[in-house]
Amino acid sequence: MNVAGYTIMGIPNFVLLSIVIIAALVFFVNRVKYLYIILRIGKEDNRFKEIGKRIKITLKRILLQICVLKDVRVGDLAGLGHAMIFYGFLCFAFSYIFMFGRGFIPGLSFHLLGASFAGYFPLILDIAALMVMIAIVWALLRRYVVRPPRLETTREAVIILGIIFFLMVFHFLMEGFEINIDSHETATLAFVGAAFAGFFNNMGFEKTTQEALFIASWWIHVLLVLGFMVLIPYSKHLHLILAPFNIFFKSLGPKGALMPILNMEEAETFGVSNIEEFTWKQLLDLYTCAECGRCEINCPAHLSEKPLSPRHLIHDLKVHLLEKGSNLLRSKNGGDGKTETGEAAEGYEGKSLIGDVVSEDKIWSCVTCGSCMEQCPVSNEHVDKIVDMRRYLVLMESKFPSEVQAVFRNMENNSNPWGIGWATRGDWAKDLGVKIMSEDSNVDILYWVGCAGSFDERNKKISTSLVNIFNKAGVNFGILGAEEKCCGDSARRIGNEYLFQMLAAETIEILKNYNVKKIVTQCPHCFNTLKNEYPQFGGEFEVLHYTEFITELIAEGKLKLTKPINKTISYHDSCYLGRYNTIYDAPRKILKSIPGVKLVEMLRNKAKSICCGAGGGRMWMEEHLGKRINEMRLQDALDVNPDLISTVCPYCLTMFEDAIKEKDVQESLKSKDIAELVEEAME
Question: Is 240 within a domain?
Fold first, then answer.
């Protein structure tokens, strides 16, 4: 049908269409421009390196819908519904080129791309439309009938879902009318459209009536599409546009590495206390959040009834950014978001970022486990924002939980959180015949013991087990002894970047002096810091966690595990070994190598494992608010009824043993490090 030649009240259709499109574009572009200018207020962040890799990651995650489909395997069908809408809408996005084009070009149709395309594409569109409508109905039922805790019911969601649903309805109406008007034989492959066409004929609609109804349906369809386009940048569904950009600009560095404060000696301020002090990428995160709640239902702080919710954190920051935006855009050079000196405009007297928008309790509730970022489908980076606010509180305001004061002092004076004399760091190994690097540095492996393995009585036993394992396997290794320092993990994540960089610089110098090439660590926090964060300061070393190293020894036949341990064991994934460094298989391979061991998985395991509660420096802070995270995680283990909980992290072991005592289940449940089990099973 000749849509372009149709007239309404004597005005050609293409003229009215032009006016409507221009008006919609004005609203859309103005809003997008406003959001972009606010985004430019953020500090610089070079996210333009490795363009090819970024394109590949973006196409893979967007086109394959990896992030939303990964939960389907565990019975969560929300991702499947999202993917159905996405793929269906992709088909229609292409068809809209023709739909709008027909308003300007008489006779424009799918036949332009060939008879086969014109025959089969309407069929594809019908299938896509049905798929989208089914997904929409499911989405509405899920939000308002069987609503899971992570979903919030909002008017906006109903409007968006309603628009998409009616876009599909009017597609079928248009298709049915057009089949009857133009009698396209090939269009009968569009079985839903053909059914509508038959219905209209059976109702006795005249051809002229159907022509008028087609034009009406076409216009409603056009207005719905343009209305949807205009609504997006004004709503949380902005992620439909910006998610690909946020994924494109995601950090390509190690997941476990925090961004450093550069040139600390020259910087005048540290951390973030104003919204404009975040980088533009951190602000882009705020725009992109879909408020889906995946971060929230996997956050141990939120699940243990602490004040922190990653979803609300991002939402509150976004609201604050937009509220403060008009003030930030006032400047001396015409309102581009910067003053002549490049700083954001001053004079805002509204809410303060820390205190009003984000309470200090929220900031200190985070265990930096990274679960929020792991589950986020649009690659938001929550942890860095929290640590940046901690940095401000610690370095600029000297405000932090009172118990942390002693921890900082102990790290500064004795290079360990307990404050035990640094000279005694290697005393645990005196009777084990371990090489000390200062006496004999001719080793293949540097065994990095860590603070817990050197000073904590319970974890010294694990250090001893590892020494016996290495000796049994004939490994030529040594330790730094008194020269080993705290790696600085807790200091950095609590927010004391200055102390961390000081410890890192001293350690890197020591390691380079001994020409260390390969390091095996006992603690996942040390592993993550040495492997992923020391390279930021020139410390490039090959770093393995002991589970990786022992797996190699077993595979090479250097270590044989023949003594049975007839126990049912549940393994707890350390956040800093698992989620941040994707080491899930090595610990399980070791356990499966031990005769008699029956491995049972907790419901929340691997990437969805819940933190023990000690990460992010929380090991050294009292847990005043909500439930205790370690007891919550212990319950996960109790639910699968093991004899033993196995860990590979000093913090995790401590937290589990505390929870076992608190729950008074010492008689039925024990906790051991995998190293202890390996030593027990050795020939």
Answer: no
Are both 111 and 220 inside the same structural domain?
A: yes
User: In angstroms, rounded to a whole number, what is the distance separating the alpha carbons of residues 411 and 499?
Assistant: 8
pLDDT at 330 (0 to 100)? 65
What CA–CA distance (Å, rounded) separates 288 from 81? 20
Do residues 56 and 203 share a domain?
Answer: yes
478 domain-assigned: yes
> What pLDDT sits at residue 347?
57
- Are 516 and 573 contained in the same domain? no
Q: Round to whole Å and give the CA distance between 139 and 78.
A: 8
Low-confidence ranges of the chain (pLDDT < 70): 1, 4, 71-77, 183-188, 330-349
Q: What is the pTM of this model?
A: 0.90
**Phi–psi pair at 273, nearest 5 degrees:** -130, -5
**Domain residues for 664?**
568-681
Task: Give the per-residue pLDDT at 341.
Answer: 36
279 and 229 in one domain? no
Outline where DSSP puts E strands in 532-651: 542-545, 568-571, 598-599, 644-647
Range 197-205, long-range pairs (CB < 8 A, 24+ positions): 200/176, 205/180
The tally of domains found in the chain comes to 4
Please check whether residues 358 and 442 belong to one and the same domain: no
pLDDT at 333: 42
> What distance lies between CA 120 and its chain's CA centroid?
39
Which tokens sit at 162?
Answer: 């309603």
440 and 471 housed in the same domain: yes
Residue type, 49: K
> How many other CB atoms are there within 10 angstroms of residue 505's CB atom?
15
Residues with Cβ < 8 Å from 180, sequence gap 6 or more? 197, 200, 201, 205, 207, 210
Q: Which residues of 522-543 are buried (b: 16+ CB within 10 A; e: fewer)?
A: bbbbbbbbbbbbbbbeebebeb
